[in-house]
Amino acid sequence: MATTEKTATVAVKPGEERLVSIEVVYRGIFQKTLAQRICRGVVLASRRRNYTGTAFARYGDSPERNGVPAKQFAVVAPTDLELEAGMAKYEPAVVDVSVAVDDTLVKGIESWAWYGRQPIWKPVRDNGFVLVTSNSTPDELVQQTDKAERPYTLAVVPGGASFAGLWVYKDDHTDYRVLGALARLLPDWLPIEDVKASIRESTKDEARVVSVQFGYDNVRTREVKKGEGTDAHEKLQFEKPGWTKMREGIIVEARKPGERNPFYKKYTARTLRPVVNFDTCIKCTMCWLDCPDECFEVTPSGHYEVVYEACIGCGICAQVCPVKDCIVMVDELKFTDNTDKFVLYDKQPDAYRQWFTEMTGLPAIGSDKPAATGGD
Ligand code: SF4
Ligand code: SF4
Predict the structure, then answer these.
(1) Does pTM top 0.70 for this prediction?
(2) What atom in ligand 1 is closest to the CA of residue 266?
(3) Distance (Å, rounded) from C-alpha 320 to C-alpha 317?
(4) Which domains are delineated in the chain?
(5) Which ligand 2 atom sits closest to the C-alpha of 320?
(6) Which of 183, 282, 345, 368 has the smallest number of CB atoms closer than 10 Å to its CB?
């Protein structure tokens, strides 16, 4: 049964009641339904306390491109008036919680219209939350998150990234676990009993309620102080241009042959990236021909190296390569920069082979000395 009770709220200043904003950052288009379900779940659960709310998508993300970071929002307020006041702006400039439903998003996300890359915590208020679905620990994720400009809490709800097909939804309860974790972070706004009651009512499925409780019980948190994090990621600072300064839409500016578009940095779309075993490469050109983003460069030795800054991580090169394990797709979180690797192979082949093994967990062929057997 719904209750009219209104207890403590998250406040900008002590005693100031206001709305709560949550954003869900996801991989378009494969996690779109997941993001919708989380935002909708927040609003429905909040209604049990007679709060009012709305869930919506960011207009600039449509049409969505595969793998590119996109956002949806849930905004909840004590009254319609406060909700309307808070919704005066099209998209919340500040959020209480940013939910990333793929942990590679902690490396930073593309802002709208390719104007730079922004840290995952960019819109999170002071002492707000970044909630990530991940099988890594909070300490591991902080090492890949941009250096904090203000304190926040990093929360991790166990589980890998849930990717669905284009027109289907992978119902693996990620949404319920995230809702349980949100209840833990915002107990005054999203009490766990309200979330469970809302899910029970809408699904009539106790297994989903169990998943909510699992998320609530198992979320791990870590306070992140100002200055913690990495500054290894490329600085592509996010500055929204005014409408008079914005580049024209739709137009793709012509480039000289061999020149890549500097505005088209696609690597924030990547969850995996290819690693090439140059020792086993037979120089067949298939990767170079089939890469949809023309990411391969031919080296003087006739090998094909990946330009990581341009690679979107689609995995087509690994699929078309005729040599087993010659191109291996590796978790993006294992990389700290976009440096191309052929120079290392050229100058220090054994060091490259060791790096290949560390990254892929596979033995490198051609080494004079056995390579380390690292890798996760
Ligand atoms: S994963 Fe391979 S095919 Fe896909 S963009 Fe990167 S280099 Fe090109
Ligand atoms: S497809 Fe594989 S074997 Fe062929 S050139 Fe590319 S990396 Fe080498």
Answers:
(1) yes
(2) 5
(3) 5
(4) 20-224 (3.40.920.10), 267-360 (3.30.70.20)
(5) 1
(6) 368
